[in-house]
Amino acid sequence: MELENLTYQLWVYFFIFARVAGITFFIPFFSTTFVPVHIKVFITLFISYLVLFEVNGTFPINSSPLVIIFYLLMNFVFGSSVGLIANILFYAFQFAGETIGIQMGFAMANVFDPVTSDEISLISELSFLFSMLLFFIFKGPLILYSIIIDSFNKVPVVFTLAPDGFMVFSQKLFDVFTIGLQLSMPFIAFMILLKVALGIVSRLIPQVNVFMVGIPLEILVGFLLFLGVILIWEDQFTTLFFQLIEWIKNSMILLFQ
Hints:
Oligomer: single chain
Distance between the termini: 33 Å
Radius of gyration: 24 Å
Number of helices: 9
Number of domains: 1
Helix content: over 70%
């Protein structure tokens, strides 16, 4: 009897591990190469153990091996979906920084990004790091892990993807561009006005070399505006982050039934 109970608890642990592993390997910051794989595995093992004795429900441990593997993969997909959706906000800030960098004349000013092992815009990297800083200030990892832990009481281990779940998930990913443009729109509008003003000056005073004056002026004004935009972004991040958390809480239950 004790052996059967131990076997049952072990299988329950595997299902919990699959769901927690999904979010650990896709959650912001923890999904990057900054965090070693063995640290990710340790975090997943530890959190899964804490959740083990709090989870109630039906587990398909008496099913065929293929069915068990299928539901293990589905739980991993559930966790990874939460992690991917959480990344939307950070990629939106990165996209906004890319747009701002182009307006400042930094389209070719790239730096090496150790996370993606690729070159990325300087302003884009600063925007991404700023959003990541706010993420930890607002205890984002704890909030996302609490969602996963609470999901065991709302979404059973045995579930299927809703018919329109993929479309809802895909449409949410497009918010990267929508949010990114909203964040960078004030900056873009002001820089357009600056370019128009420089164009008027070049027509009124032909002796002024607008090309030589305009580029340094755009960089100087751009940096000053960027500092002002960052102050605004703090409030916007707070609003967008908690809106995204509410969307995850409400929609994940509908996507996975």
